[in-house]
Design goal:
The complex is a heterodimer of chains A (223) and B (134). Chain A is of the alpha/beta class. Chain A has 9 helices and 8 strands. A 7-stranded parallel sheet of chain A has the order 4-3-5-2-6-7-8, with helices on both faces. Chain B has a domain of 79 residues: hypothetical protein PF0899 fold (2-Layer Sandwich). Chain B contains 2 helices and 6 strands. The termini of chain B are far apart. The interface between A and B is large, with 37 and 43 residues. β1 of chain A pairs antiparallel with β6 of chain B.
Chain lengths: 223, 134
């Protein structure tokens, strides 16, 4: 027997990365801004997204959402209350969305054409670890954390927070009773992803939504 | 727990590459994994055994090389290795450094194959050089 070493130097998730690159160029040529929302279960992604969809529609924007969960279409039904087209992706046990699932669910989505949209939101499966490795072709990855989760969440999950372009703090209306240390949370986010944009919001009271919507409008503007 | 998906992706990629060397057996697979790649080494090793079961990669060793986080510090004008993953600061001047140069890698670096000697009775039992078989 002889030994041979073969240099591969290839990404383990190359297949996903290639599919994601294909999606990204599709999104870019359609002129739709795509965001991937990632957080733990229970952070309030769905409530935040529901409010975002409603506010954007109220301003005349064309919006749609894909929502990932292991099982049930509960979130899709909640989001559909905003009036926006919503499609549920059930992963049946898989802890993250991948580019192939996104591609499959874009095809044959009745009444939705990418070119007719201003914004497409992808609500990932509630998980702060696995989604960080899977590019979905999004332009902006948003990491969410709620005031009930602890200020050190970014330090516990640095991989995910470092991979995000912006962070949203949710449930700010109960920050006081929760003893949320805002300064510490902001500091921790900045240590993991220096210079990251952070939005402090409440889907219930609408606090912070204006700044978030202004950010979306600024990002959607053709450069 | 996405290490099983990761392990399955490695098996797929390595099997594809190894198929270019008929008669060979994969002995070792070497990875480069950044400290911010969100991959747990023990968990990946565990999943590797599961993912390689009943495949030509059964018994192949998975060697994981961990890469530390490296940032570029504008102030110092250098790339510097960060201690840990809790704070992306330049170790020289202490300033926050957003420009990440290493730490998110999730790569197969190389594979090591055992190949039959050209004159060794192996696949097909002929003493022909490997190159001439096809």
């Amino acid at each position: 027997m002889t030994t041979r070493i073969v240099e591969l130097r290839r990404g383990i998730l190359k297949k996903n990365d290639e599919l994601a690159a294909g999606l990204r160029s599709r999104f870019t040529s359609a002129g739709v801004l795509v965001l991937n929302l990632v957080s733990s279960p229970g952070t309030g992604k769905t409530a935040f997204l529901e409010r975002t969809l409603r506010e954007l529609r109220g301003r005349g924007a064309h919006v749609a959402a894909l929502v990932g969960d292991l099982e049930t279409d509960n979130d899709a039904r909640r989001l559909a209350a905003s009036g926006a087209p919503v499609r549920q992706i059930n992963t049946h046990g898989i802890c993250h969305l991948d580019a192939e699932m996104i591609g499959k669910h874009l095809d044959g989505w009745q009444g939705v054409s990418l070119a007719g949209l201003n914004y497409l939101f992808i609500e990932n499966v509630g998980n702060l670890v696995c989604p960080s490795s899977y590019d979905l072709g999004e332009r902006i990855r948003v990491a969410l954390l709620s005031v009930t989760e602890g200020e050190d969440k970014p330090l516990k999950y640095p991989g995910l927070f470092n991979s995000a372009d912006a962070a949203v703090i949710t449930k700010m209306d109960i920050a006081g009773p929760c003893g949320f240390d805002r300064e510490l949370a902001l500091k921790n986010l900045n240590e993991i992803r220096p210079g990251m944009r952070v939005f402090e919001t409440s889907a219930r009271t609408g606090e912070g939504m204006e700044a978030w919507l202004a950010y979306l409008a600024e990002q959607a503007r053709p450069s | 727990m996405h290490e099983l998906s990761i392990a399955a992706s490695i098996v797929e990629a390595v099997s594809e590459s190894a198929s270019a060397y008929p008669g060979s057996r994969v002995k070792e697979v070497r990875l480069r994994v950044g400290a911010l790649a969100s991959v747990v080494e023990d968990s990946l090793q565990f999943c590797w055994e599961l993912a390689t079961q009943d495949t030509p990669l059964t018994g192949a060793l998975l060697v994981i090389r961990k890469l530390p986080v490296v940032v570029h510090c504008d102030g110092c004008g250098v790339d510097a290795e960060v201690d840990g993953v809790q704070s992306l600061r330049c170790p020289r001047c202490g300033a926050l450094a957003a420009d990440l140069r290493q730490g998110r890698e999730l790569e197969i670096e190389s594979i090591e194959l055992d190949e039959p000697e050209p004159n060794e009775p192996g696949m097909g039992g002929e003493a022909k050089p490997v190159e001439e078989r096809k």
